[in-house]
């Protein structure tokens, strides 16, 4: 079986370049507990090339109740080797290696397979001092880092993806309707729209006018009639009336029948009237990407060099270079072909200018990266992650605690910080005692006091005791069902970071399985 056959489903999902990135990646997991096993199961099935498991723990009876990648025959054997063996059965094409060593010995970072495309992961009840040291070392070596922790029904994971970029953001559509440029048409597009004489079109052509031409004519006319600079949803009655004014009467209508022709082009214009409201603006992801670019300055990496060139283009024209596409429409073939050609020619012209700009700065970009950026320029994105040691200590913003769900997840965020401080002081997770309960509650109170700008909601104070008692009840132990689902979520986010597609989480994900709540905290 070839790799293309083996990974057919993944290739259909994230394309050949995404699968190539997965197969070129390396993941090192410091630990082999049930969380590590569940996470690695997902990554191995994706086709990660190199998996390294570092642990000197042996398989115990407790593992048999929580870790599905060990069995009774492996009791007393090294757990990392056992997990590696069973993971290999899932995908023999992945190189899965077990290293028998203490997972808190940072010597594993010297592994020659680790580079800037690698990920180091940790799990469980670890001291924040160790995680902080690991965070510093990963930053020094430009290795990405994540930590996942669950206990009972609660979970949290934290991600440091370094300076990250992605080409294909989370937009579901392949064609951005805003790039039809109704609000900011370029001269060639205006020329095409104006070339369509609606009155002289035959019935077949008139009923299938490309809807951007209708919206352009409506907008241009209403701006003059209403003497305004922009249209808003408050003008919807005028907009719809103006669109309907282009409808053509039937020549011989039946009695009591609709006297107007069926005109899909006009119907599409009605469906898309939002495209003529407001002013043109950058897509949100591109805007955030430009902000990251301004923050990091010149970076000798093709993606960020293309971003800088695109920023210069945007500053000059107040528009992105066009990506060259055009969505399907209920339009006449002749009109649609001409419209597609207008957008394609505009794109070629824009990107020729980008190319010349890069050449003038002696910047060379490979053709595959250039084309991928061009196709996705409207949904590119960039994130400058914070070091993991900072993310681990981040408190929820007060203004985010506004309803039951956000308050409960805010407590989870506080709770995991308090638990790690308990582990630092006591070398163990909290147990189900009044002493441990009181310690955690006191630590959360200290964290609460840091929120000096406003008082936390009263419900936060009431609910936190329930959450602390529930956490203590599990004594730091995990529930297999919670681990399986939450580790799969982390695997999804790590995969996004590896393949540079979709918009990954920016730092923290919190999970409350009791109430079925999940939230991303930047």
Automatic annotation (TrEMBL):
<dbReference type="InterPro" id="IPR030667">
    <property type="entry name" value="APP-BP1"/>
</dbReference>
<dbReference type="InterPro" id="IPR045886">
    <property type="entry name" value="ThiF/MoeB/HesA"/>
</dbReference>
<protein>
    <recommendedName>
        <fullName>NEDD8-activating enzyme E1 regulatory subunit</fullName>
    </recommendedName>
</protein>
<feature type="domain" description="THIF-type NAD/FAD binding fold">
    <location>
        <begin position="7"/>
        <end position="105"/>
    </location>
</feature>
<comment type="similarity">
    <text>Belongs to the ubiquitin-activating E1 family. ULA1 subfamily.</text>
</comment>
<dbReference type="Pfam" id="PF00899">
    <property type="entry name" value="ThiF"/>
</dbReference>
<keyword id="KW-0833">Ubl conjugation pathway</keyword>
<comment type="pathway">
    <text>Protein modification; protein neddylation.</text>
</comment>
<dbReference type="GO" id="GO:0019781">
    <property type="term" value="F:NEDD8 activating enzyme activity"/>
</dbReference>
<dbReference type="GO" id="GO:0005737">
    <property type="term" value="C:cytoplasm"/>
</dbReference>
<dbReference type="GO" id="GO:0045116">
    <property type="term" value="P:protein neddylation"/>
</dbReference>
<dbReference type="InterPro" id="IPR035985">
    <property type="entry name" value="Ubiquitin-activating_enz"/>
</dbReference>
<dbReference type="InterPro" id="IPR000594">
    <property type="entry name" value="ThiF_NAD_FAD-bd"/>
</dbReference>
């Amino acid at each position: 079986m070839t790799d293309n056959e083996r990974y057919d489903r993944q290739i259909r999902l994230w394309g050949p370049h995404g699968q190539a990135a997965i197969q070129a990646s390396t993941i090192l997991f410091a630990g082999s507990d049930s969380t590590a096993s569940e996470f690695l199961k997902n990554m191995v099935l994706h086709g990660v090339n190199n998996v390294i498991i570092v642990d000197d723990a042996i398989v115990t009876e407790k593992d048999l109740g929580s870790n599905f990648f060990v069995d009774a025959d492996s009791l007393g054997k090294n757990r990392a080797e056992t997990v590696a063996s069973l993971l290999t059965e899932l995908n023999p094409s992945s190189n899965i290696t077990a290293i028998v060593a203490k997972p808190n010995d940072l010597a594993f970072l010297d592994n020659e397979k680790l580079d800037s495309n690698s990920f180091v992961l940790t799990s469980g009840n670890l001291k924040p001092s160790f995680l902080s040291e690991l965070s510093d070392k990963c930053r020094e070596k430009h290795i990405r880092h994540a930590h996942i922790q669950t206990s009972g029904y609660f979970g949290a994971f934290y991600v440091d993806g370094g300076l990250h970029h992605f080409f294909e953001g989370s937009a579901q559509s392949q064609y951005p309707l805003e790039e039809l440029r109704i609000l900011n048409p370029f001269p060639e597009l205006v020329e095409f729209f104006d070339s369509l004489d609606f009155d002289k079109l035959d019935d077949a052509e008139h009923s299938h006018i490309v809807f951007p031409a209708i919206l352009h004519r409506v907008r241009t006319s209403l701006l003059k009639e209403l003497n305004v600079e922009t249209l808003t949803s408050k003008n919807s009655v005028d907009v719809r009336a103006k669109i309907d004014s282009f409808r053509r009467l039937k020549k011989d209508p039946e009695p009591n029948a609709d006297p107007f022709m069926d005109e899909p082009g006009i119907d599409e214009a009605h469906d898309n009237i939002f495209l003529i409201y407001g002013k043109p603006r950058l897509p949100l992801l591109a805007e955030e990407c430009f902000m990251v670019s301004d923050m990091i300055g010149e970076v000798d990496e093709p993606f960020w060099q293309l971003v800088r060139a695109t920023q210069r283009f945007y500053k000059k024209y107040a528009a992105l270079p066009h990506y060259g596409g055009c969505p399907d429409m209920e339009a006449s073939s002749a009109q649609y072909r001409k419209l597609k050609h207008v957008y394609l020619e505009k794109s070629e012209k824009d990107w020729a200018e980008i190319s010349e700009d890069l050449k003038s700065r002696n910047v060379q970009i490979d053709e595959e990266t250039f084309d991928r950026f061009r196709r996705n320029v409207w949904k590119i994105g960039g994130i400058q992650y914070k070091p993991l040691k900072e993310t681990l200590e981040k408190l929820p913003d007060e203004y985010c605690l506004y309803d039951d769900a956000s308050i409960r997840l805010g407590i989870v965020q506080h709770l995991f910080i308090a638990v790690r401080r308990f582990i630092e002081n006591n070398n163990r997770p909290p147990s189900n005692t009044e002493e441990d309960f009181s310690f955690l509650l006191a630590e959360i109170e200290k964290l609460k006091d840091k929120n000096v700008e406003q008082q936390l909601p009263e419900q936060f104070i009431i609910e936190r005791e329930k959450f602390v008692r529930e956490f203590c009840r599990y004594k730091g132990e995990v529930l297999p069902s919670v681990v399986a689902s939450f580790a799969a979520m982390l695997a999804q986010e790590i995969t996004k970071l590896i393949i540079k597609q979709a918009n990954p989480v920016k730092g923290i994900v919190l999970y409350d399985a009791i109430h079925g709540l999940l939230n991303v905290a930047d």
